[in-house]
Design a protein that fits this description.
Elements lengths: L1 H26 L6 H7 L4 H8 L2 H26 L3 H14 L4 H15 L6 H19 L8 H21 L3 H17 L7
Length: about 200
């Protein structure tokens, strides 16, 4: 009986996240109606409050899901680049490029910071930072990067990619801003190289 209740709660949570993700992407956080959203999946506002506390908590869950997917996708692109250095550059560029995806742009890069605050403090960003730190540590050990503090370098690289994505998303002409953001991200990262590129 308890197992079924837990499964039902997990199903309800998943339904609410799917519905919210769609509503936030289409209408934006402010315009998304929680009554419409819960009715769409056959649940009550009580289910939303029970699972997420409020609309802000639901947005946090949606942002966490999308941002985690973004990090995973960027890491996969990085792995395919061939080595840790190329992977680091490819991962950062991929994260910045995702600012062109309408759902990412609206939910994660525009509404997320406006409602949830500083993205660098989000749990999903923390796990991304740790992955970058491990890559930086390997590159320092391989003497590809200067022997700087790995956490500082990871924070600066992650922050640069995040802020570049925020800039692209908020700009009036994201397609025009994107190549400038990626080129400058690469230039910043190359400043850490032991031997200049």
């Amino acid at each position: 009986m308890a197992k079924r209740r837990v499964e039902t709660m997990e199903e309800n949570r998943a339904k609410l996240i799917v519905a919210a993700r769609k509503a936030f992407a289409e209408k934006g956080y402010s315009a998304a109606s929680m009554d419409e959203l819960t009715a769409e999946v056959g649940l009550t506002r009580g289910a939303l409050y029970h699972n997420f506390g409020d609309k802000r908590g639901l947005l946090a869950a949606v942002v966490d899901q999308i941002d985690s997917e973004m990090a995973l996708r960027a890491q996969e692109i990085g792995v395919r680049a061939g080595d840790d250095w190329k992977g680091l550059l490819a991962e950062g560029a991929a994260y910045i490029e995702m600012a062109l995806v309408p759902e990412v742009q609206r939910i994660v890069l525009l509404d997320g910071p406006a409602v949830l605050g500083d993205p660098s403090k989000w749990p999903s960003q923390s796990s991304c930072l740790q992955a970058t730190r491990r890559t930086v540590e390997r590159l320092i050990a391989q003497k590809v990067l200067k022997p700087v503090d790995a956490e500082a370098a990871a924070r600066l690289l992650s922050g640069a990619a995040l802020n570049a994505a925020l800039w692209v998303a908020a700009s009036d002409d994201p397609q025009h801003v994107l190549p400038k953001a990626i080129e400058t991200f690469h230039a910043l990262a190359e400043g850490l190289l032991t031997k200049p590129a």
